[in-house]
Amino acid sequence: MLASLHATGQNVEPIRFGDFEHWVTRNIKESRLIGGEQKQVYAIGPDKVINGASPYVPDASTPWATSNVMAKVVGIVKTSNAVYPDKRPEGGRCARLTTKLEHCKAIGLVNIDVMVAGTMFLGRMFEPVTSTNDPYSKMEMGIPFTKRPKTLKFDYKVDMPASNTRTYSSGLGAKKTIAGHDNAEAFVILQRRWEDADGNLYAKRVATAREVFGKSTQGWVNDHNLKLVYGDASKSTTLPLIKDSKSYYARNSKGKMVPVHEVGWDSPDATPTHMLVQFSAGSGEPFMGTLGLTMWVDNVGLTY
After folding, report:
1. Could you tell me the sign of the dihedral formed by the alpha carbons of 152, 299, 181, 83, in that order?
2. Ramachandran angles phi, psi of 248, nearest 5°
3. In whole angstroms, what is the distance from residue 60 CA to residue 63 CA?
4. Which CATH number fits domain 6-303: 2.30.30, 2.40.50, 2.60.120, 1.20.950?
5. pLDDT for 146-199, tens place per residue?
6. SS3 198
7. Alpha-carbon distance 137 to 273, whole Å?
8. Residue 144 has pLDDT above 80, yes or no
9. DSSP per-residue codes, 106-120
10. Are 99 and 294 in contact (CB under 8 A)?
């Protein structure tokens, strides 16, 4: 899922479709009970238009997934879109990730608000989403990968709202307002995964890199490098080993989605089997965020 090497002072290997010049546009009509509006939902991949409320299956050539989904709850088709194509001032396109409330109201059936932080990651989202329970189980995080890059390289811009609050709203119960703003973030994790005889997945952490963005930038920051730390990164990263209660999911050899149990730090010279990369307009728990927080991302690649 990586393009060929090219030189720009560094050996840079672009992640395929990480220039965000190409997008899938899905035209989906929501259920009449909630207004029957025609909505556009975007995916990162080869240019095409898909009409209709059918579950999205990504083209095999794209490694990217997003938090944009079609949901079908108690028979009601609802869309969510917080990752969009956008234009850069100097030309070309990029990805815009924003934090917003998705509202769904149908008299006598459902009346909910769900906080969505625009997120894109390497992996796949499975549709239709039928509930807000256990959101990670609907995402396959990571792609096969066996190299050892030095950095994750990308261009970015952040717009941080002036409000110093976060909102929690999962659609279950009332919304909560919490002091303190959220942050945008980028991270990369390299894992060495294996499967036991019962189909359970385990991993050791080969390398880690994470950065949070808590302030607005003065325009675009280009050629930003996020350095990977190999081996035990517990003293140099804000991304600790993943607890079982927050495990990401992946498909085992039988095709079943199961949690990936991260059981320790690997040796600094280990060879990974999978790579996780994520950009998000939020860095907290699912369904929590600062309304309007926006991050733009472009030209994502790996350096060696």
Report:
1. negative
2. -75, 165
3. 8
4. 2.60.120
5. 999 999 999 999 999 998 888 888 776 678 888 888 999 999 999 999 999 999
6. coil
7. 21
8. yes
9. ETTTEEEEEEEE-EE
10. yes
Six-digit token string for 281: 């307009």
Omega before 161 within 30 of 0, i.e. cis: no
Among the listed residues 226, 276, 279, the one whose alpha carbon sits nearest the alpha carbon of residue 66 = 279
Residue 301 has pLDDT above 60, yes or no: yes
Determine the Cα–Cα distance for residues 264 and 267; give it in Å rounded to an integer. Answer: 10
Q: 69-91: per-residue pLDDT in tens?
A: 998 877 889 899 999 999 999 99
141 CA to centre of own chain = 9
The secondary structure of 80-111 as a DSSP string is E--EEEEE-TTSSEEEEEEEEEEEEEETTTEE
Whether the predicted model's global pTM rises above the 0.85 cut: yes
Residue type, 33: L
Bridge-based pairing of strands 257-265 and 201-213 is: parallel
**How many Å apart are CA 78 and CA 99, to the nearest integer?**
17
The two structure tokens encoding residue 85: 């194509």
Q: How far apart are CA 173 and CA 171, in angstroms?
A: 6
pLDDT tens, position by position, 271-281: 999 999 999 99
Cβ–Cβ under 8 Å, residues 168 and 175: yes
- Give the closest residue to 78 by CA, choosing from 25, 126, 28: 28
Phi first, then psi: what are they for 31, rounded to 5°?
A: -60, 145
Q: How far apart are CA 48 and CA 45, in angstroms?
A: 8
**Token match 């709850």: residue?**
73
Q: Structure tokens of 239?
A: 């991304």
